[in-house]
């Protein structure tokens, strides 16, 4: 909507940037997929990279785009051999010499014998033979024509290897056409020199294109675009030459030098090559890369184009791999991608870029000092997802075990109701009770003056209330490297996120602390836990973890203390008296003794301590049975896939059981 002075308002399509009324980009499934990877043990950066590789919502990911590029690369490798110009020159040279010999053979004159001797003495290499015949006085018209074809071919191929499509433009070229090429090369060198000096070349570029635009069918729109096209082709020409055998390279270099000299362009082309190197030093100048190797012979210009395409496809494949330090989707060259795979591929890349931007813009990812982190908003969603999956595994009858349905002094309305059962003391839900009676008797015949509602026993519903009491939950999670080796770390991380989400959302009166332990122990925030990987240091320091748990429980003396331990190994580390960690395998008696002493301190605080042992190794099973007997707890040995179900169900059961005392 635009207001026009004196004319009111005009309505039309919004043109001031992104539509402010457009629905927000739907990131739900993307965040959930990242969450799946994070809960499976991956870091956030790895999870995002994996999502971008797979793609989503019908859009191709980086992996599929790269596979398509690799297929194009395979096809480009089969484009043909690069010695086509040499082969064609040799064939024309053989034709010229053979035609000349046929013309000389019937002539009895001594001059004819001298010319035959001159032909016999020609150098073995093609370039040397072409040079030696430069001043030769041909007797045969056919031979002269074949030699002139060599000169014309070399002029066109040499220029075509530097300037795309020049071969066709110079077919049957006149002296005036060749002079136009020389003028273009001179003006081009001056333009690039000015650009390299940092001068403003916009107007000079426009004048250059007005004068010489016919030599550049790609129609560059700026001096930078022109230089990019020429520099890439010049670098490809060097790679093409590097891909030849030493003998082929020497012969072709000699032929090129002769041709440039004959055209009077040797110094100008050398200067142009140096200027392009200076303008684009980042290109792979002189490096040997992939070269085509098919059955068809390619001329210099076509071979240079094929090598340039291979170089572009190699660069594009590397960009799509994102496998180098500091990789970003912004690195992917859209122009190369469109040239290789078409516009739909660019649209797919654009969708991936938008997804990455929106994850940050909508507050799911934070980038700080180059590090990508999950925001609290994303962590909450991850926890809810993990909890939802846990509850999906629990039996329906077990989902509500944490609620006590009576109306005690601490009773709270749940917002729901249920049918009355004998012995219930909850308040009646009057509205639902009357509604049930009305619905039940709606089709029963009654007298006109009978407006009473007849309530039966089955109509009664009572208001559901629950009595909640606070609990302090310390969840100790083993971070030792063996958790990754056994494939249980992802399940442990997911379980911790699920339990944290359950406590903070469903039982806000409870307190929870997640403690990770390996060689030492540390308190973990949910955001830290989502990013966390297992510790590569050796040691399972349960003693230190229990010390932190006791400190946490001591801050919540009015709450019911609950300690849950997830581990896959018996203690192999403890803290010395000076606080330094000590590790030994097999466990030393001192490590076991210090850990058991800490277990007994936890037990004296009144906490329930249950252990979830993820490895059936006899030493671990014996140890955890011993400590849970001391602390009055229980031992569970679940599969890692069901760890979350066990931990959450045990928390709910323990919480309910403690309230019943």
Automatic annotation (TrEMBL):
It comes from the Bacteria. Residues 1-20 are annotated as: Disordered. Residues 470-652 form the VWFA domain. Residues 1-13 have a biased composition (Basic residues). CDD domains: vWFA (cd00198). InterPro entries: VWF_A, vWFA_dom_sf. This is Uncharacterized protein, contains von Willebrand factor type A (VWA) domain. It comes from Geodermatophilus siccatus.
């Amino acid at each position: 909507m635009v207001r026009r002075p004196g004319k009111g308002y005009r309505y039309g399509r919004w043109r001031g940037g992104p539509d402010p009324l457009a629905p927000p980009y739907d990131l739900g499934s993307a965040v959930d997929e990242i969450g799946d990877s994070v809960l499976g043990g991956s870091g956030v950066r790895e999870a995002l990279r994996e999502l971008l590789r797979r793609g989503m919502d019908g859009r191709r990911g980086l992996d599929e785009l790269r596979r398509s590029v690799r297929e194009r690369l395979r096809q480009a490798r089969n484009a043909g051999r690069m010695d086509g110009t040499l082969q064609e020159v040799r064939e024309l040279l053989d034709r010229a010499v053979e035609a000349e010999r046929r013309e000389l053979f019937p002539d009895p004159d001594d001059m004819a014998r001298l010319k035959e001797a001159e032909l016999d003495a020609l150098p073995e290499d093609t370039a040397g033979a072409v040079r030696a015949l430069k001043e030769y006085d041909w007797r045969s018209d056919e031979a002269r024509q074949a030699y002139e074809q060599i000169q014309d071919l070399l002029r066109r191929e040499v220029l075509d290897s530097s300037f795309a499509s020049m071969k066709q433009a110079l077919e049957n070229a006149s002296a005036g056409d060749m002079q136009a090429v020389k003028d273009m090369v001179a003006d081009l060198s001056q333009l690039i020199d000015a650009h390299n000096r940092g001068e403003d070349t916009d107007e000079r570029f426009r004048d250059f294109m007005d004068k010489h635009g016919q030599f550049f069918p790609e129609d560059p729109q700026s001096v930078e675009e022109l230089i990019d096209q020429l520099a890439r082709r010049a670098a490809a020409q060097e790679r093409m030459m590097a891909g030849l055998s030493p003998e082929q390279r020497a012969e072709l270099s000699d032929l090129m030098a002769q041709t440039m000299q004959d055209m009077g362009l040797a110094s100008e082309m050398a200067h142009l090559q140096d200027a392009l190197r200076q303008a684009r030093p980042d290109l792979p100048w002189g490096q040997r890369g992939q070269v085509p190797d098919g059955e068809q012979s390619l001329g210099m210009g076509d071979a240079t184009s094929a090598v340039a395409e291979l170089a572009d496809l190699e660069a594009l494949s590397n960009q799509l791999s994102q496998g180098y330090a500091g990789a970003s989707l912004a690195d992917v060259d859209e122009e190369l991608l469109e040239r290789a795979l078409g516009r739909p591929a660019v649209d797919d890349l654009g969708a991936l870029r938008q997804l990455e931007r929106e994850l940050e813009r909508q507050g799911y990812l934070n980038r700080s000092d180059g590090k990508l982190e999950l925001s609290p908003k994303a962590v909450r969603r991850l926890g809810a997802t993990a909890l939802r999956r846990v509850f999906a595994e629990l039996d329906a009858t077990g989902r509500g075990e944490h609620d006590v349905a009576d109306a005690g002094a601490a009773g709270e309305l749940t917002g729901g109701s249920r049918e009355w059962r004998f012995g219930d003391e909850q308040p009646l839900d009057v509205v639902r009770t009357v509604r049930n009676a009305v619905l039940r008797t709606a089709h029963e015949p009654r007298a006109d003056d009978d407006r009473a509602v007849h309530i039966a026993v089955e109509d009664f519903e009572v208001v559901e209330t629950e009595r909640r009491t606070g609990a302090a939950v310390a969840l100790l999670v083993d971070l030792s490297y063996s958790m990754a080796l056994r494939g249980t770390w992802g399940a442990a991380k997911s379980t911790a996120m699920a339990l944290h989400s359950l406590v903070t959302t469903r039982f806000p009166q409870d307190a929870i602390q997640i403690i990770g332990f390996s060689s030492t122990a540390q308190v973990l925030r949910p955001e830290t836990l989502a990013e966390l990987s297992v510790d590569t240091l050796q040691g399972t320091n349960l003693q230190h973890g229990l010390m932190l748990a006791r400190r946490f429980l001591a801050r919540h003396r009015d709450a019911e203390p609950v300690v849950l331990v997830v581990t896959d190994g018996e203690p192999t580390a403890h803290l010395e008296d000076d606080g330094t960690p000590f590790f030994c395998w097999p466990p030393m008696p001192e490590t076991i003794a210090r850990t058991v002493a800490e277990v007994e301190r936890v037990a004296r605080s009144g906490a329930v301590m249950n252990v979830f042992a993820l490895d059936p190794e006899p030493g671990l099973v014996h140890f955890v049975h011993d400590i849970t007997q001391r602390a009055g707890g229980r031992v569970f040995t679940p599969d890692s896939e069901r760890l979350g179900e066990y931990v959450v169900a045990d928390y709910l059961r323990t919480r309910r059981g403690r309230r019943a005392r």
